[in-house]
UniProtKB/TrEMBL annotation:
Domain Carbohydrate kinase PfkB: 2-291
Activity regulation, short description: Activated by a monovalent cation that binds near, but not in, the active site. The most likely occupant of the site in vivo is potassium. Ion binding induces a conformational change that may alter substrate affinity.
Active site positions, chain numbering: D250
Name assigned to this protein: Ribokinase
Organism annotation: Pseudoduganella plicata
């Protein structure tokens, strides 16, 4: 089993001719609600890109978005027994404006995601005991993330951390991570203000020196730089015409984790993740863009 611990959001996506000015009212184009949240996206990607059972640990509110998001996870065959609906709390949302150039502006209201506590992790320990891989991100409270990583590492699970949104983390946490998957900005942020996002190879090596077994820095259309336990390698991305890179990183991670769970080596898992993300960026939205295993081109 793969257990994904993290955020569950409804994305409120509105197309606009251009970003509104302060105090201005614009008429937008089509409005869509699309299931998102880094945690839920990664759980869906794990489920669509492999055959290993997937369980999600997270919180929604007891509102219509919460009901819809839970149903979306169930539709992908994901175990939601530890997705808690919290009374009197709003489900997390991301308000997203997308302009005609495809650039976006996003405001997130964490809502129920901010209420995921270490006690929710403890309640899910029997689930985690059945897992081989535990996946976490940083869209839920830091204490909870640290607790989840410590528990999973202590149980001998493979720990995958996507350190997004960007934040600094203590070396004691990084030392418990088997696969750290930042983009180049997140890699630099993990190392503090002195690090340079362009020197992603240096960042990967420095993060590995802090104790992460494998560091995979995603570089958008440039692919992935991997500092693996047995050496560093660059993996170019597939050449595609991207229309929307929302959830590209989440799709990559889902493919990576699904392949690792199926017994692939790191290079094979990176390849599957990149083949999946290359399809995802040619489609709009978060969970709407994540492909199924049978859609992937052979490598
Ligand atoms: P994030 O969205 O987390 O910043 P990236 O933009 O680095 O993540 O994208 C994650 C992965 O998705 C990349 O490593 C690559 O495999 C794939 N990807 C992203 N953008 C493109 C693109 N324009 N063309 C092909 N693959 C892409």
């Amino acid at each position: 089993m793969i257990v994904v611990i993290g955020s569950i959001n409804m994305d409120l996506v509105l197309r606009v001719p251009r970003m509104p000015l302060r105090g201005e009212t614009l008429t937008g184009g089509a409005f869509r609600t699309i299931p998102g949240g880094k945690g839920a996206n990664q759980a869906v990607a794990c489920a669509r890109l492999g055959h290993t059972p997937v369980a999600m640990v997270g919180c929604v509110g007891d509102d219509a978005f919460g009901t819809t998001l839970r149903a979306a996870l169930v539709a992908d065959g994901i175990d939601v027994s530890h997705v808690t609906a919290l009374p009197g709390v709003a489900t997390g949302i991301a308000s997203i404006l997308v302009d005609e150039d495809g650039q976006n502006s996003i405001v997130i209201a964490g809502g129920a995601n901010d209420e995921l506590t270490p006690a929710h992790i403890d309640a899910a320990l029997p689930l985690m005991a059945r897992a081989t891989i535990v996946v976490v991100q940083l869209e839920t409270p830091p204490d909870t993330v640290r607790h989840a990583i410590a528990m999973a590492h202590g149980m001998g699970k493979t720990v995958v951390l996507n350190p997004a949104p960007a934040a600094a983390l203590p070396a004691s946490v990084l030392a418990q991570v088997d696969y750290l998957v930042p983009n180049e900005i997140e890699a630099a942020m993990l190392l503090g203000a002195h690090a340079d996002a362009d020197d992603y190879a240096g960042s990967a090596a420095a993060l590995q020196a802090k104790g992460c077994r494998n560091v995979l820095v995603t570089l958008g259309a440039k692919g992935v730089h991997a500092a693996l336990a047995d050496g560093s390698r660059d993996f170019p991305a597939r050449a595609v015409k991207a229309v929307d890179t929302t959830a590209a990183g989440d799709t990559f991670i889902g493919g990576l984790v699904a392949a690792l769970a199926a017994g692939a080596d790191p290079a094979g898992a990176i390849d599957l993740g990149q083949r999946a993300a290359a399809i995802g960026v040619t489609r709009h939205g978060a969970q709407t863009s994540i492909p199924y295993l049978n859609e992937l081109e052979p490598s």
